[in-house]
Amino acid sequence: MTHPCLLLLIGVAFAFRSNEVAPNCEDATEPCEVTLELGFSLTMVHYEQRERGGASPVNLRPDGKLRLIRHDDCQVDRTLTDEEMSRVVTADGRHKLSILYNGSLPGPPIVVYENQETYEQMSVAITKKHAPAKVEGLKPWYSNEIHGARKQRRRLERKYRKTKPEVVITLTNALEDESTSLHIHGLHQRNTPWMDGAGGTSQCLVNPGETFTYRFIANPPGTHWYHAHHGNQRSMGAYGPFVVIQQNFMQKPIANTEFHLMVSDWMDSPSDRIVELVRREAVSYSYGFDNAPCYTSTKQADGLDCGVTPFTSALINGKGVHYNTGTSNFPDWPIEIFKVYTGSQYRFRVTCASMTYAFRISVDGHSLRVVATDGGEVLPREVESVVIFAGERYDFALTADAASGSFWIRAESLERYQNQKRIEPHTTYAILKYGDGADVAPTSSKRNCTAENPCTVLNCPYRHHPDVHTVCVPAADLRLHSADPTLGRHSKIREDFLNFHYVLDHDTWKTSINGKGFQAPSSPPQVYPNDDQQAMKPCSECEDGNIYCGCTHILEIDLGSVVQFVLATTVNNPAGVLNGNAHGIHMHGHQVQVVRIGWPTYDDQGFYNGLTPDIMYDHHTGHIRWTNMSWSDGALDVLDNSAPLKDTMVIPVGGYVVVRFLADNPGYWFMHCHTEFHNVEGMAMIFKVGNDSQMNRTPQNMRTCGNQNPSSVSLGLLTADPSIEMTEDVTDCRDTLRILRTATMSLAAIALFLLSVNVIIVCQSSADKGYTSIPTSEE
Ligand SMILES: [Cu+2]
Hints:
Helices cover about 15% and strands about 30% of the residues.
C-alpha cells in the first residue's frame, strides 16, 4: 500500500472542484436552467472529451498523479495534466461501469433559490422571526450575516420583488438501452405532481435518446438531492446535490462557508444482482463464485443484520476507498478535501446516496452542531457524530477552532460483528484542512468516548450503543425552532399501519409493504388517471399480510385530512423468526412530523431480544395494530408540535416510527424504501392525495406511453381524411369560417358584419369548453 502522504498530492487537483455551495444562477428573478445528460461512463478512464471521442484507462502513479495507458499497446503513455485529472472519475480506484450525470460523480451540484417572497415579506421575516438575539446556538454565524445583509437587502429589494423563479432541468437520456426519470428528492412539487420524476407513477419513463424538460418551483428550502428514479441507476452513480437557498438572508451561502458532502457505498454489484442473491439465499457466495471465502452477513450493535452483502467501497463526493478485505485501512486513492480557516463557521450539507449501507459521520477534533434534517431547520444539537441512511440529509455547522493542521472526516459503516466476533467498521475518509498550505495526511484520531465523557450519536437505528460509552439520540428528539401549528390535536385523524417486511413468495423471501410487492401500472396514473388501457393489478385481490402478493398498491387519502402513518418493521412469518434490517422510508411530495419512535426490546447487553410490545401482529389476518387499542385512530398522545419535519425516516428493526402530516398536496405520490434493491424488488407503494378532480390537470403535452390496444375505429383514423383529427369544436369553427368566406362574396357588407359577430361568439364559447389554464388546488 502506498503511503497516504504521497497520495494526497493528487487530492489537490480535485479538492475544490465542486464541494462548495454556490448558486447556479446569480439572478433569482429569472428561470434557472440546467442541462443534465445521463450516460454510461467508466471510472478510472480518461475521456478525450466529454462527448465521447477516444478514451484511455488510467492508473495511479506513486507520486499521486494519474498516468494514461495507451489503448493500442497497453503501454504507459504520459502523466495527465491537473486539468485532465480533474475530469477523471476516480471513485474507489477501480474500473467500473457507472451511470452518471454529465460524466461526473456526484452529478453537478444544482443550487437554486427558493420561490421568491416579496420584499415586504422578507423584511418581516428578518425583523420579527430571525432577529439575531433570538437565534440560539448559531448567533455569531447568523449575526454576521445580518450585518452584512443590510446592503444586500436593499439590493434584493430592488431586484427580487414579486418574482417567482422557476427551475428548468433539461434531461437527456444518453443511455443506450435503459429508460430513466429524474426525481428531486425533498421537493414537494406542489401544483406540479407530474414533475416529481417517479417513473411510471408521475410520468412516462424517458427512453434512450429522448429529452424531458422538468419545470417547477423550488420548494421547500434546504439540502436536497437529485437522482435517477429507475432501476439501479442511482447506486451506479446517478445522483447529485440539489440545494434550495432559503430566500431570507440568513442562509445565503457565502463563499467557502457551505459544503456539499455526499456519502455513499459503492458496490461491486448492481441492486438487481443483490435482489437475486438475497432472494435465493445465495448471498453467502457474493464474494464471487470462484472465490473461496463465503460471506456471512455483518451485524450492527444490537446484533441484527447490517450488511447482507459485502461492503466493497464507499465514497465521499465520488472519491474513496476500496476494500479487498473486511479490515479498514487508509485511503489509497484521491479523497475529498474541505478547506477551512481558523475562527470561521462552516455548514456541511450531508446527503447519503447509498444503495444499502448507512454511515456514521464524524470529524476528528471537532464536534458537529446539527442544524437541519431533510431540509428542515431544527434547534442546534451538539453531537459527536450523526448516522445517515440512504435518502436522509443532515446539515451540521462546524466551528474551525483548531489553530492549524488537517483532520480526518470519517464515514463509518454500522458494522460491528461478524461470525459472533467483534469487527472494525468499514470507514471511508475525507479531509478537513486548515489554511492554504500543502496537503498532508492527517494524523488525527477519533475521539475517545469515555464513561465520564460519553459521545452523543444522532439517529442510531437502535436504542443503545452498548459498551462504547455512547449515547444515542433518536432523530425524533430533534426540535423545530417553533412549533408547527398545522398538526395539533385533531378531532379526526386518519391512521394507517404500514409494515415494511419480508414475506414468502413460494420459497423465496421478498420485500413488501403489508405483504404487497409493488407492481407499477402500465402507464403513470398522474398522467392518465382514467386510462382504460392501463394495466393495474388491484390489491383488493390480495390477502393482507401473510402471503406475498404483487399488486399496484395505492392508498387513497382525502385531501385535507390529517394522517398518521405507523411505519413498522415487525415480524410476519408464523415461525416468529425476525428477518430484516432497518429501512429508510422516503415519502414523496411531503414533509412529515416524526412524532414517535418505538423500539424493540433489548437484553442487558444491548442486544435485540424481542419485537416492540406496542404493536400486535395478527397472524390470522396479517394486519398489525396497536396492542393498546386506546391508542387507535390517532389517539396516541404525541402532542408535541415541535417534532422535526422529515421526508425520509429510519425504522428500527422490530420497531416503528409514527409520522403525522396534513395531506394538502394533491397528487399520486410514491413512498418506498431507499435501500435500492428493496425498492427494486417492490417495497414501495403510491399514496394518492385527493381525487383526480382535485389535482391540477397534467399538461396536455406531456409525453405519452402505456399499453396500446388500437381499436378498429382508431385504426380507421390512420387512413382517413387528416382533417378528421381536428376536434369537434375546431371543425365547427372552420366550417363556419368557410361559410363566412362564401358569405363575403355574396352578401352585403352589413350582413357580413352581423355574421362575423355571431361567429366570434360561437368560437369563443367553444374555446371556453376546452383546456385553457391549469386550475389551482384551491379551486
Ligand atoms: Cu428497505
